[in-house]
Amino acid sequence: MKTRKFEHLLIVVAMFGLFISGCNKDNSSPSNNGMANQQIAQVQNSDVQDAVADKSDQDADNTMDELQSNNYQVSALKSALASGTKVITVDHPDSTTFPKLITIVYTNYQDSTANESFVKNGEIDIYVTAGNDKLLVTRAFTFKGFAVTTDSTTVTVNGTRTVTRTKHVYAYNGLTSLKLSVTDNITANLSFAIVQTGQTDSLKFTRVVNKLRISILHYNNIGLTTAWKYVKFRNIPSLDTITISGTVTGVNEKGNDYTKTVSEATPLVVTFYKLTPIVSSGTMDLTVTGTTASSFTITYKQDLPDHPYMTLVTVTNNTTLKTHSFDRRFGRKFFRWW
User: Fold this and answer.
1) Which residues contact 13 (CB under 8 A, 6 or more apart)?
2) pLDDT tens for each residue of 14-68
3) Which of these, 117, 207, 281, 323, has the minimum number of CB atoms within 10 Å of its CB?
């Protein structure tokens, strides 16, 4: 497990995006008391759209956290396992000059850290602003035909996503451990196009996002001395939590308007089981208009005791009160979704 000096601690916020970086449909323990197959597919596709959307901007989040921790200096190092190019430019490579403009241009870039092959192309521009507290930054990501391809599926993203860091709090237990709490407001207006090789049709959907994300990360001191400049902390993921609430509205792949709502009273809470992210609790309300108008309540919990590495998703049709349950595994891979 990686260790970090205290002054570089902030790059760990890159894990914020991990929990929905990808997913595969795993119905190893489904239950169904009569909900129509069309409605089941509707909810599962909606669930999958979140995975597509969040994976598409995860790499930009991680890159920005890494740049911030390195005083916005671009590293020249590149893994021999990576292919293609990722060119990053920063107009003000320091932690004092704001605003600053950062551009990431991908050309057939395959991330060497991926467990499954995926290739990125296109451009992401990030406009960064900050107030008196240089850690409370606002990042506006503009996706310009940014595309991610895996196997036979390509997802192209256009639009703007803004992440505003409103709070960060350190809680120390002497020099033995540390807890970091970070609060982000996330807004976005994005469009997605999904194309599969060999398919005559393509899928499109849009998302307008307004989310509150609170991440609490835990660290133990593993330094060999108590001298401050030598203190090192190691992240303990099994203790971490990520809490998300808010709304997502848009048009799904069938052309119907939809709204997803997660209230602050019952937020989605992400925990980790042996480094696997799990939505361990929370409730989402989903409404869809159009020819398949419907309303659902979706609950999430860890699937104990048989599948602790999976989230058990239970969907209730609010009109008929019929339900359907299925397992969902959220992971770091970029699985094919359709």
Assistant:
1) 65, 182, 215, 217
2) 222 322 223 333 343 444 455 666 666 666 666 666 666 666 666 778 788 888 8
3) 117
Q: Which helix (H) or strand (E) holds 61?
A: helix 37-69
Of 5-19, 68-82, 160-174, where does the model show the most confidence?
160-174
Identify which of 208, 280, 207 has the alpha carbon closest to the alpha carbon of residue 244.
Answer: 280
Which residue in 125, 124, 123, 122 sits closest to 101, CA to CA? 125
| pTM, full prediction | 0.78
* Paired tokens of 267: 């937020």
Residue 179 maps to a domain: yes
CA-nearest of 279, 276, 277, 298 to 287 is 298
Whether 338 is covered by a domain: the verdict is no
Please check whether residue 337 lies inside any domain of the structure.
Answer: no
pLDDT band, residue 115 (cuts 50/70/90): low
Give the Cα separation of 309 and 95 in Å (integer).
39
User: Which one is predicted more confidently, 7 or 192?
Assistant: 192
Distance between CA 139 and CA 145 in Å, rounded?
A: 19
Domain-located, residue 24 = yes
**How many domains would you assign to the chain?**
1
CB 192 within 8 A of CB 204: yes
Please give the C-alpha separations between residue 193 and each of 127, 151, 158, in angstroms, as whole numbers.
24, 16, 9
pLDDT tens, residue by residue, 64-101? 888 888 899 987 666 666 788 889 999 999 988 999 99
In angstroms, rounded to a whole number, what is the distance separating the alpha carbons of residues 248 and 279? Answer: 18
Tokens describing residue 253? 């792949």
Please give the radius of gyration of the chain, using alpha carbons only, rounded to the nearest integer. Answer: 20
Instruction: Give me the pLDDT at residue 187, please.
Output: 96
Q: Which domain holds residue 53?
A: 4-330
129-143: b (≥16 Cβ within 10 Å) or e: ebeeeeebbbbbbbb
**Helices first, then strands: H and E counts in the chain:** 1, 18
